[in-house]
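User: Hello! I'm new to structural biology and keep hearing that structure can be predicted from sequence alone. Could you demonstrate with GCN5 family acetyltransferase? Please show me the input and the output so I can see what each looks like.

Assistant: Of course. The first part below is the input, the amino acid sequence of GCN5 family acetyltransferase. The second part is the output, the predicted structure written as tokens.
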Amino acid sequence: MAAPTLTTARLVLRQLRADDAAALFAVLSDAELMTWWSSGPHQSLAETEAYVTRNAEEGQGWLCWAITAAGDDSALGWVILMDGKPGVGEVGYILRRDRWGGGLAREAVACVIAHGFTEGRLRRIFADTDPDNAGSIALLEKLGFRREGHLRGEWETHIGVRDSLIFGLLKDEWQKVETQFK
């Protein structure tokens, strides 16, 4: 199933497409931005093309939206909502560094969360982030997520074995804070 198009005041979230690779190479090749990603910075456009194509494929247990500015179809990043157990999803996101600080990631992720709890009929959404990723932790906390766990030595990444923090958000908790993000 393709990700349905979602809109906010400033953004259009649409199905990620293979042809987004050129625009997303700027994101996925940025060494500092990719520090906390599960894989290292991309070395070539071909690497990004393969990665984006894989994430854009339908029927793999996730919905993946390209984040675009209203009126400009160029991908700035993406938000993914992955299937977990029945009623549970995992959210992930990435955004071009030159667009940080303006609330776009918060707006995009909030839109996907709202979709997950309504149309996706989820009861819980969680996120997994590196304990040193202060920006991601701040974003999750602003959206109402609560820290639920600390998994030691969870991921083997391009920067070594890393711990993971698990943040969770329940549907009724979201309903109490979602008006802040509309």
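User: So the tokens describe the shape?

Assistant: Right, they're a compact way of writing down the 3D structure. Reading them back into a model, for example: Residues 6-181 form a domain with the Aminopeptidase fold (CATH 3.40.630.30).
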